[in-house]
Design a protein that fits this description.
Layout (H helix, E strand, L loop, with lengths): L3 E8 L9 E8 L2 E6 L8 E4 L4 E4 L1 E3 L7 H4 L4 H4 L3 E6 L9 E2 L19 E2 L2 H10 L5 E7 H8 L9 H17 L3 E5 L3 H4 L3 H8 L2 H4 L2 E5 L7 H15 L3 E3 L13 H12 L4 E5 L4 E5 L2 H4 L4 E7 L10 H8 L3 H8 L2 E6 L3 H9 L3 E3 L13 H16 L5 H7 L2 H7 L15 E4 L20 E6 L2 E5 L2 E2 L7 E2 L1 H8 L1
Parallel strand pairs: 1-4, 1-5, 6-7, 7-10, 10-11, 10-23, 11-12, 12-13, 13-14, 14-18
Antiparallel strand pairs: 1-2, 2-3, 5-19, 8-9, 15-17, 16-17, 19-20, 20-21, 21-22
Helix pairs in contact: 4-5, 7-9, 9-10, 12-13
Length: 485
């Protein structure tokens, strides 16, 4: 029984090797039923896709959408870009398994929620909440190492004891049993900065029997970036698990150009172990406000401040001038807060994006008052600016980086490709007009050129607005592995 027919579009199938071709696509239930010349079917609704690209729905492999899936279930920031699946729990931060019992979440856990949002003592509790209130798009969830630490240790400013590692291991195992697809770390941040490699390796060892992955916001992306790569590779080797380097970059003016060192190092390591990496298409990063980053940045824009919320969207230098104080003192007065930092070189960004194994991830922060435009603009920016305007790669390659490559790395069976039997996660877009419209001044403008987005066979975004459908799923690792077999 055919429900939808996408008629006459140009199909790019997400594999990165098959040339585009004109074809119809039939959708039955949550699956693609046919790709080719599809006859009319009684009761099927048709969409004229002639002149448009029909691609797999995009997979945002690096998000902090843990709470957004529940708070803003239409997920307009992602559906409007053609994103149909998000990977949550990155940088060591996940809402579960953690119950704060009145304590405020330490930075950067406050990027995704306040005290009351950390109400999932078991990871299965969080996944059950997603099941009870489905979002418009799918979610594959990582468990955060920093979240495990905060839940198991009274003082995170030191290495964990054997007993504390055992408590973390117990909660990690519960998360894996519940369906988490892996563990992430954020060794750059204070809650995990004192964790030695042995702690990460001990926990990562639990991932291998489960067929799960390890992703990492490395300890250093600046002066010691090569050492941090070595630490990340070593964790993967010791545990026998795939490693994903999160939002790969080299930061600070002193490190401009150093992706010419890091990418060959990554490529060489890939010859001996499973390694992936992701990136976002901007020269500015965003996270909590840290004085250490201010000194390395060319410019700093405040994204939120609990002590001075009216300063969101303003440059730190302007705030400091208005207050008649230095920028470091202004930063202290704004705390707790978040910021955007201009601290990367455009040549490095293009070099990483152009690397053949780089996946695309937004790293967007959906709860910022004035977010980085990557939250709303990442995928159309790759397709419109870097693919069409800059010519960094062809359209088939660009689509592969955000679909088939990502699905394969994270084990998202049946996603990321257009073929009969695959899930009907689809994005229909105009290759000539697709572009990001979100800017640093107006960061929440939806992209241009996205015509239709389907999630599990149901429309999520059509002609510039959310459909109201809630067809997304909280995907479990075990289910995906079973389907793969």
């Amino acid at each position: 029984m055919t429900d939808w027919i996408l008629r006459g579009g140009t199909v790019i199938d997400g594999t990165g090797v098959t040339p585009r071709r004109r074809a119809d696509i039939a959708i039955a239930g949550d699956r693609i039923a046919a790709v080719g010349d599809v006859p009319k079917a009684a009761g099927a609704r048709e969409i004229d896709a002639s002149g448009l690209i029909v691609a797999p729905g995009f997979i945002d492999v690096h998000t902090h959408d843990d709470r957004a899936l529940l708070a803003t279930p239409d997920m307009a920031a992602k559906a409007s870009q053609g994103v149909t699946t998000v990977v949550t729990g990155n940088c060591g931060i996940s809402l579960g398994p953690l119950s704060l019992d009145g304590k405020g979440p330490p930075p950067p856990l406050d990027l995704i929620g306040d005290t009351g949002d950390y109400a999932y003592p078991r990871f299965s509790d969080y996944l059950a909440a997603l099941d009870r209130a489905p979002a418009a798009i799918n979610a594959a969830c990582l468990v955060g190492h920093s979240t495990l630490r905060v839940g198991a240790m009274a003082d995170v400013d030191r290495p964990a004891t054997d007993a504390e590692i055992a408590r973390m291991a117990e909660r990690l195992q519960e998360a894996l049993d519940a369906g988490a697809i892996g563990m992430s770390s954020g060794l750059f941040y204070a809650p995990a900065a004192k964790a030695p490699p042995s702690e990460i390796e001990a926990l990562a060892a639990q991932l291998q029997p489960a067929g799960a992955v390890y992703t990492t916001h490395m300890r250093d992306e600046a002066e010691h970036v090569l050492d941090s790569l070595d630490e990340s590779f070593a964790a993967g080797r010791a545990a026998g698990v795939p490693v994903v380097i999160s939002h790969h970059k080299t930061t600070g003016v002193a490190n401009f150009g150093r992706t010419q060192e890091t990418l060959p190092k990554i490529a060489a390591a890939m010859q001996g172990q499973e390694i992936g990496l992701d990136a976002y298409p901007y020269i500015a990063s965003s996270t909590v406000l840290r004085t250490q980053r201010i000194e390395d940045a060319l410019k700093v824009l405040i994204t939120w401040s609990k002590s001075a919320p009216g300063q969101a969207g303003r440059e730190l230098t302007d705030i400091a001038r208005d207050w008649g104080i230095g920028v470091l003192e202004a930063a202290e007065r704004l705390q707790p807060a978040g910021a955007i930092y201009w601290m990367m070189d455009e040549a490095d960004v293009q070099r990483v994006l152009g690397f053949d194994k780089t996946m695309i991830g937004s790293d967007g922060l959906p709860h910022d008052i004035h977010p980085h435009p990557r939250l709303w603009g990442t995928f159309p920016r790759v397709l419109g600016h870097y693919c069409r305007e800059v010519g960094l790669f062809g359209l088939e390659t660009a689509v592969h980086k955000m679909t088939g490559l990502s699905a394969a790395r994270f084990g998202l069976t049946g996603r990321g490709v257009v073929k009969p039997g695959a899930y009907a996660d689809l994005c229909v877009f105009d290759a000539d007009t697709i572009i990001d419209r979100a800017t640093f001044a107006e960061p929440t403008l939806p992209a241009a050129g996205i015509a239709h987005v389907f999630v599990n066979g149901r429309p999520a975004w059509t002609d510039g607005k959310a459909s109201g459908e809630r067809a997304g799923r909280a995907m479990r690792r075990q289910q995906m592995q079973s389907e793969a077999r």
